[in-house]
Design a protein that fits this description.
This protein has 253 residues and is mostly helical. It has 9 helices and 2 strands; from the N terminus they run H-H-E-H-H-H-E-H-H-H-H. It has one domain.
C-alpha cells in the first residue's frame, strides 16, 4: 500500500506554495489545459445543435500528404509525452510503481481492469448516445495508411502514460505533500479525468469519473501505476483499432 510522504505535515507555507505552483504548472502544460479546451468544446457542441448531432474525433489525419501526416502524428505523440517526463523528473526518488518489477502481475491486473472498465464503458457510451448526452466518437482517421495501426497503438500508449502518470502517480504524490486526504485526492483526480473528456459529452465524462475512482483506489491500495497504464493502453487500443477494423460492420462509421 502506498504511504503519505514523511514530510507532508512538516512543510513550510513557502514550500507548500511552491508545490501548489508546481502542480498548476504541470497541469497547465498537460491535462489541465485539455480540461479547459474540453469544456469550451462542450459549449460549442451544445450551442450548435446539441450532443446528439455532434462528433468528437480522435486521431484525425493531420495532413493530406502521407509523409507529412505521419511526421505530424509522431511529433504530436512525442510532445504529449513531455509532461510525463517532467512529472517523473519532478518525482525523482518518489516511486510510483512505473517499473518492470512485477510484469506478470501488472499485466494480469491490467487486463482485468480493462474488462472491468471496458465492458460497462461500452454500455455507458451507447446509453449516452441513445439519451443524446454523448457525442458520436470517431477514434480512427478516414484515410488509412500502412502505418495507421502502429500510430493508433502508439497514441493509445501515450494516453495511458500521460493520464495515469500525471493524474494518478504525480497528483497522488504532490497532493499528499499538501496534506490532502486519500479520498479527497482520489475524487479530485477522478473529476479532473472526467473534465478533460467533456468534449465527448456528459456520458463519457461520467464514465471517466468512475474509471478515475476505480484507478485511484487501486493505486492507493497498491502504489503501482503500471497496471493502470497497461489497462488504459489496452482500452484505447481496442477503441482505436477496433473502430478501424469493425466500425462499418457495427454501424459506427
Amino acid at each position: 500500500m502506498s504511504r503519505p510522504s514523511p514530510d507532508s505535515t512538516s512543510r513550510t507555507p513557502e514550500s507548500r506554495r511552491r508545490v501548489a505552483a508546481e502542480i498548476w504548472i504541470v497541469l497547465g502544460l498537460s491535462l489541465g489545459q485539455s480540461a479547459v479546451y474540453a469544456v469550451l468544446s462542450l459549449v460549442v457542441k451544445l450551442t450548435n445543435g446539441g450532443l446528439r448531432q455532434s462528433t468528437a474525433s480522435l486521431n484525425s489525419s493531420r495532413a493530406d500528404q502521407q509523409w507529412l501526416d505521419l511526421t505530424l502524428q509522431v511529433l504530436s505523440i512525442a510532445f504529449a509525452l513531455v509532461p510525463v517526463a517532467l512529472a517523473l523528473y519532478l518525482l525523482a526518488g518518489r516511486p510510483i510503481g512505473l517499473d518492470r518489477r512485477s510484469p506478470g502481475r501488472d499485466t494480469l491486473v491490467g487486463c482485468l481492469l480493462t474488462v472491468v472498465i471496458g465492458i460497462p464503458g461500452l454500455g455507458v457510451y451507447f446509453a449516452g448516445r441513445a439519451l443524446g448526452v454523448t457525442a458520436e466518437i470517431v477514434t480512427a482517421p478516414d484515410t488509412v495508411y500502412w502505418w495507421t495501426v502502429v500510430i493508433l497503438v502508439a497514441a493509445a500508449l501515450q494516453n495511458g502514460l500521460l493520464e495515469e502518470v500525471v493524474v494518478v502517480g504525480y497528483l497522488f504524490a504532490r497532493l499528499r505533500d499538501l496534506g490532502w486526504s486519500t479520498w479527497t485526492i482520489i475524487v479530485t483526480g477522478a473529476l479532473l479525468r472526467g473534465s478533460y473528456h467533456l468534449y465527448q459529452g456528459f456520458g463519457q465524462a461520467l464514465g471517466n469519473v468512475v474509471m478515475g475512482l476505480v484507478f485511484g483506489y487501486w493505486y492507493h491500495r497498491t502504489g503501482r501505476v503500471m497496471p493502470l497504464v497497461i489497462a488504459h493502453t489496452l482500452l484505447d487500443v481496442v477503441a482505436f483499432v477496433g473502430y478501424l477494423a469493425l466500425g462499418d460492420r457495427l454501424g459506427l462509421k
